[in-house]
C-alpha cells in the first residue's frame, strides 16, 4: 500500500474536518464494498480453480471414479465429492 500526503489529494476544508478527529496520524480509507473483488480475481486463481473443477466434473460424468480423481488431482475424497456433487 502506498501512502499519499493528504495535502496532495484532499481539499483544504476536508483536511481541516479530518484534523478534528486525528492530527499527524495515519488513516486508512477503505475501498467501497461495491468495488471489492472476490478472492482470486486479481491473480487468476479463481479462474484456474473453476477450470479444474469443471474438468473434474466432466471426467466424473465420463466415468472416472472418485479414487481416480483423488490420485490425478491430489485432493482428498471429500474435496472431490464436494466438487462433483455440488452444482456450479
From TrEMBL:
<protein>
    <recommendedName>
        <fullName>Mor transcription activator domain-containing protein</fullName>
    </recommendedName>
</protein>
<dbReference type="InterPro" id="IPR052411">
    <property type="entry name" value="c-mor_Regulatory_Protein"/>
</dbReference>
<dbReference type="InterPro" id="IPR009057">
    <property type="entry name" value="Homeodomain-like_sf"/>
</dbReference>
<dbReference type="InterPro" id="IPR049739">
    <property type="entry name" value="YraL-like"/>
</dbReference>
Amino acid at each position: 500500500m502506498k501512502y499519499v500526503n493528504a495535502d496532495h489529494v484532499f481539499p483544504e476544508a476536508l483536511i481541516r474536518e479530518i484534523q478534528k478527529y486525528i492530527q499527524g496520524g495515519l488513516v486508512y480509507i477503505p475501498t467501497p464494498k461495491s468495488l471489492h473483488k472476490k478472492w482470486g480475481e486479481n491473480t487468476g486463481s479463481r479462474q484456474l480453480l473453476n477450470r479444474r473443477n469443471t474438468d473434474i466434473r466432466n471426467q466424473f460424468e465420463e466415468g472416472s471414479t472418485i479414487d481416480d480423481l483423488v490420485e490425478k488431482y491430489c485432493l482428498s475424497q471429500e474435496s472431490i465429492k464436494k466438487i462433483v456433487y455440488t452444482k456450479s
